[in-house]
Amino acid sequence: MKKRQLGASGPKVSAIGLGCMSFAGFFGAADDATSLRCLDAALDQGIDFFDTSNIYGMGRSETIIGTWLASRKPNVVLATKAGIVTAPTRRFDNSEAYLRSELEASLKRLNREHVELFYIHRREQERPIEEVVETLKRLIDEGKIGGYGLSEVSPATLRRAHAVHPCHAVQNEYSLWSRQPELGMLQTCAELGTAFVPFSPLGRGVFGEVYPDPATMADTDFRKRIPRFTEPNYTHNRARIDGFKAFAHARGWTVAGAAMAWVLDQGPHLIPIPGTRTPEHLVEWVGASEIELTNNDRVEIARLLPAGFAHGDRYNDQQIIGVERYC
User: Fold this and answer.
1) pTM above 0.90, yes or no
2) Residues in domain NADP-dependent oxidoreductase (predicted)?
3) What residues have CB less than 8 Å from 24, skipping those under 6 apart?
4) Catalytic annotation present for 56
5) Would you say residue 120 lies in a domain?
6) How many domains does the chain have?
């Protein structure tokens, strides 16, 4: 696995990380034993960057990772998040008291005294981002975190935060069917020396060998309420992606490998974090860092899947609350 820099002053990590949200059942039933096998398989394939959050299964994802760390004792880089309060109603809290409390709880679940990267999962708009970064800077100085990141923010917020203390990473959704980061965020991260960490780089599973079937998704599956997976949008989207599948197979690539290679090709500061519930799916994309796209490949992908091809938003009206939209 090739390596990339996690921010200008951050560690070198695998070019592809592993997102661990699916361990908590967001995309269908998951069991801890299979999740542990996923972690083993990822490590064996050279992945050393793992991403989670305090709210993934209300700590379940972190607990699984912590169990694995205690058993395997691997040399890996961890990222976790806080900032979303889920009960009694969903809201955002970036106060120092809340962030400290949640970080301590995360560290306990992870069996760690320190985490390399700590994200603000969603920005609390009423609180100046400068105040939030001052809190994060204190956590860095205390050795609790190696650096901080921001999730689902705008380029303007990143610039304000970075002016207080350099930001290691921004984590926003980015894939062949979610392209907003091209309107300023990718460029701002490159300018500031901030890593851009795309989540859902495989379109929540749509860029795989078999399309996800909303009819068989569990009621708890996050995708069931996403407009892109509802009709008539989903039929249109699959028809467009069919051409990309043929393109990938003609070159001897998996669909996931080709889609991931495209993400990696957008800049050396991108470190995507696909997720999976099974080790079997991991093998479809883990070799993507070895795929070298040609100029002809880039032109053909742009023809098949131009920016904006997808019908339907990437979130519904409730899911998108807290996301900073711009442009």
Assistant:
1) yes
2) 15-301
3) 30, 56, 57, 58, 60, 61
4) yes
5) yes
6) 1
CATH number at residue 203: 3.20.20.100
Predicted confidence pLDDT, tens digits, the chain (327 residues): 999 999 999 999 999 999 999 887 666 667 899 999 999 999 999 999 999 999 998 899 999 999 999 999 999 999 999 999 998 889 999 999 999 999 999 999 999 999 999 999 999 999 999 999 999 999 999 999 999 999 999 999 999 999 999 999 999 999 999 999 999 999 999 999 999 999 999 999 999 999 999 999 988 888 999 999 999 999 999 999 999 999 999 999 999 999 999 999 999 999 999 999 889 889 999 999 999 999 999 999 999 999 999 999 999 888 999 999 998
Q: How many residues does the chain have?
A: 327
Establish if 13 belongs to a structural domain.
yes
Cis bond upstream, residue 232 (ω within 30): yes
The tokens describing 257, both together, are 């490998």
Which amino acid belongs to residue 313?
A: D
What's the chain's Rg over C-alpha atoms? 19
Which residue in 181, 173, 186, 200 sits closest to 269, CA to CA? 186
CB 301 within 8 A of CB 247: yes
Q: Cis (ω within 30 of 0) for the bond into 212?
A: no
* Amino acid letter, residue 232: P
Catalytic residue among 56, 148, 174, 234: 56
Q: What is the signed CA dihedral for 188, 189, 194, 200, rounded to 10 degrees?
A: 150
